[in-house]
Amino acid sequence: MRILLVEDDVDLSRQLKSALSDAGYAVDHAADGEEAHFLGDTEPYDVVVLDLGLPKIDGVSVLERWRRDGKTTPVLILTARGAWSDKVSGFDAGADDYLTKPFHTEELLARLRALLRRSAGIASATLACGGLWLDPRAARASVNGEPLRLTSLEYRLLHYMMMHQGRVISRTELVEHLYDQDFDRDSNTIEVFIGRVRKKIGTDRIETVRGLGYRLTPLTGESEAA
Amino acid sequence: MSEAPAPVSEAETGLNRRAVGGWLLRPGRSLTRRLVWLASAWIALALVVTGAVLTYQFQESALRRLGSVLSATIDEAVIATTVMPDGSVLTTPIMDARTLRLLSGKYWAVAEPDGRGGLRTLVRSASLGSEGLAVPRGLPAQLAEAAGVNITYNAVGPNDEPLMVAASQKTLPGRAAPIVFLAGLDRSDIDADARQFATLAWVTLGLLGIGLLIAVFLQVRIGLRPLYDLRDEISNVRKGKAARIERTYPAEILPLAEQVNRLLDHNQDVVERQRTHVGNLAHALKTPLSVMLAEASGDPSQLADIVRRQSDVMKGQVDHHLRRARAAARSQGLGERTPVPEVLDEMSVMLERVFQSKSVEIDWRAPDSLGFLGERQDLQEILGNLMENACKWCARKVRVSAGTSGLGQMIVVIEDDGPGLASDRYDEVMKRGARADEDTPGSGLGLAIVDDLTRAYGGRLTLGPSDMGGLKAILTLPAAEL
How far, CA to CA in Å, does B99 sit from each of A73, B73, B312? Predict the structure, then answer.
């Protein structure tokens, strides 16, 4: 497994390098944002450990650039700023996990194992509909190239609708595919989720067919242009 | 010791102010009340004086008119009186119908002192019949002292009517003994007039007074309206409905409004600066701590063990105190509103990704209009910690429901379907650094942080069992309509 370690503190990077090597990773080290971006862009890493406070280019910008270029390598962020607002901005940039400093090396190793296990899921085809795009393997979706932030219920709803795009799907059908049996099957909740997904992907993409249900349609104008 | 006189002089000025300003000017008393009270005192005084002068003046002039009628009657009686050669007195009837008609209310009489302090009537008007005009004790003596001068007094007439009587002692040629001329006139008409005038005057003045008071009250209300507006605006800032004082105010209180705005800006600056300092300090301390932890890990020596344990303690302390400082700094930050659904959404998306290996599913519900009266970072911190805990301990499902509870409060309930917690351990996990399971890495349950922050906002965190099987955390926080 190849790992890219991005950390500017000399002592910490030396320690992490040796701990990661001991755990069986092939470690490349970058001490600043520029070097990190270059290495991540050119080498096929399995996982990246990225410190956010970096010289030259900060970690969040490096991550944003990778994600814009379509890199899906799982990234774990190391940050001294443990506030949730900082974590949220890291995730907005495309991080897969975070660890706040100071941390135990064992925990870092455990998190990396979990990340690798997750990304090694069974590959399946990506789904597309108009400008919408969904990758079931990475559980990621985007609209017109912009990554979408979806909760699992919203993701599941969109996934189901994309698998059945163009067809009218009834509320009952959606409820059955969204929830387990033990959930209270209140069909009003479907409206709530449709509303939230519409807010994120654009109102016109999900059409309400009165009395029947909902239909996901590629926006005709855009799909012809594309 | 050189400072000793200061408190004395302060006490003195305090006393002086109390003595001079009186209860009306006590600092706590409302401006409206002050102004209205002062104005009404002046108005009442002015009106009472006016009323008294008017009624007095009216009565006086009426009595003067009465007096001149009486004096004319006496003069007529004097002219009609002849002293006979034997010294007896003869008065021909005065040609005035009222003095001829019995008990008409207008009388005259001619008398002489009887030498025993009374008067003996010599001649009387026809209107008197056989009655005389009442004479108070000591009148003859007074008359004798002031001969030729009219002395007036009140008496009861022959018909039981109130009379005003004028008496004058004269000496006529041909008679050495003095003669007293008396004239009486019913004064009940004049008294009634005076009473009517007084009633009219007091009612009119009373109405004028009420009108003036209303005018003063309105003037004060309208005049002070900008102050009330300012008060409302400040209260809106306090409640978080506004960030600054926006309206334009009259020149007198404009500086006050500007100062309030400057104070708000200053507050904001202080909060920002504090937060930056806190962030920098956190960043500066945490990397060295990581280095120490990493260096010690995997080393079985006692030193390494101590470093490891102490680093953990330091980490906990740094986290706790930095968050406390931030919580204290921001509870003064006014006027921020944070949309709750947005924060729930971003937290859910993020935590589901973090706990993806466990396929955690977060089902959150909140009305679109629900807002938190406070800073976004704080809501993120509170919900982040509680939801992360729920994700950590759940089997697969986490449920978050938020809603308003009236009285400007909102309630957020966070539940999971995990093993839960024995009720006797609730208090324990709320304590700083306590962990429900010491084997799980991380900064404990983080509930102490949540509790600190929640308290800083005047809210509450309680724990209980969830019907999903796991732990249920119930948060009360200040709400704001979006």
Answer: 133, 10, 124
CATH 3.90.1170.20 is right for the domain spanning B338-481: no
> Residue B26: what pLDDT?
65
Closest CA to A199 of A159, A161, A133, A154: A154
Domains of chain B, by residue range, sit at 80-186, 263-330, 338-481
Per-residue pLDDT at A222: 44
Is A97 within 8 Å of B357 when comparing Cβ atoms? no
Three-class SS of residue B470? coil
For B35, counting Cβ atoms within 10 Å of its Cβ (0-12 exposed, 13-18 middle, 19+ buried), the class is: middle
ipTM: 0.74
Determine the Cα–Cα distance for residues B357 and B348; give it in Å rounded to an integer: 15
Q: What is the pLDDT of residue A181?
A: 54
Q: Is the pLDDT of residue A118 over 80?
A: no
All structural domains of chain A with their residue ranges = 2-119, 127-225
Establish if A84 touches chain B: CB-CB under 8 angstroms.
yes
**pTM for this predicted structure:** 0.57
CATH topology for B80-186 is Beta-Lactamase (3.30.450)
C-alpha B324: how far from chain center? 39
Q: What CATH class is the domain A2-119?
A: alpha beta
Architecture of domain A127-225: Orthogonal Bundle (1.10)
- Smallest CA–CA distance from B347 into chain A, residue: A88
What does the alpha-carbon distance between residue B145 and residue B161 come to, in Å, rounded to a whole number? 29
Is residue B10 scored above 70 in pLDDT? no
Residue of B nearest to A149 (CA): B349
pLDDT of residue B276: 75
